[in-house]
Amino acid sequence: MRSILNIVAIAAFTGLAFMACNKPATTEATPTASTTAETGVDKIVFIDIDTLLSKYNLYLDKKSELEGQSKTAEKALAGKIEAFQKRLGKFQQDVVEIQQKANTIAPIELKKMEEKFGQQQQNLAKEEESLMKQRDNATIELESKLLETQKDLQKKIDDYLDKLAEEKGYDLVLMKGSTGSVMFGKATLDITEETVKRLNEEYEATKTK
Questions:
Q1: Residue 110 burial (CB < 10 Å; 0-12/13-18/19+)?
Q2: pLDDT score at 183
Q3: CA 156, 43, 58: angle at the middle one, nearest 5?
Q4: Which residues of the chain are modeled with pLDDT < 70?
Q5: From CA 1, how far away is CA 92, in angstroms rounded?
Q6: Whether 70 contacts 142, CB under 8 Å
Q7: Which end of the chain has fewer CB atoms at under 10 Å, N or C?
């Protein structure tokens, strides 16, 4: 029954990382990248995705919500599993006792007991199968919500960067962090804090509507 307890760990959600721009980003942010477009050189900035996610309130709220749903599903299933294991233990104990007393029980009564235990065994097998399905369904549901949340966060970041690029004249926004392609970037090219601030402002505005 240990396998039944293996609900997907939503803690993996904390490892989410989102591409800061849809364009391929393999070029390092170098001092020359900050030159304005008027000089004929692309204007490049970067975002530290790890810092952004650690401060983006929408991400933090969604993360907390999914973790809560995961714990609730796990707790509910754990209670059902505990009750099932008690019934299974009682059944196994009864079988052992009857086996020990088999020589003292009339054949016709023994036959009835065997049929009864056979039916109980089938019922327990069906119950175990049902618990497995519940576990799988809970996993699928949480994974679906996680994917939906990832897409929502990605879209909000992409939409913001589209507006920011048009407003500031950026040609390329690179991503720095554990899954990013930027190894080093001058602090003057880092727009993480500004991005976090404005994303949180947009999020707060949606909550007050």
A1: middle
A2: 81
A3: 15
A4: 1-42, 209
A5: 15
A6: yes
A7: C
Q: Which token pair is 164?
A: 């920011």
Is there a contact between 200 and 56 (Cβ–Cβ < 8 Å)? yes
What domains are there in the chain, each with its CATH number?
Answer: 2-207 (1.20.1270)
Residues contacting residue 41 through CB under 8 Å, at least 6 positions apart? 32, 33, 35
Pairing of strands 172-176, 44-48: parallel
Alpha-carbon distance of 185 to 197, in angstroms, equals 20
201/195 Cα distance (integer angstroms): 10
From residue 107, alpha-carbon distances to 59, 93, 99, 102, 176 in Å are 67, 21, 13, 9, 77
Beta strands of 71-202 (E only): which ranges?
Answer: 172-176
**Is the full-model pTM beyond 0.85?**
no
171 close to 120: Cβ distance less than 8 angstroms? no
**In Å, what is the CA distance from 55 to each residue of 112, 122, 192, 199?**
66, 52, 10, 10
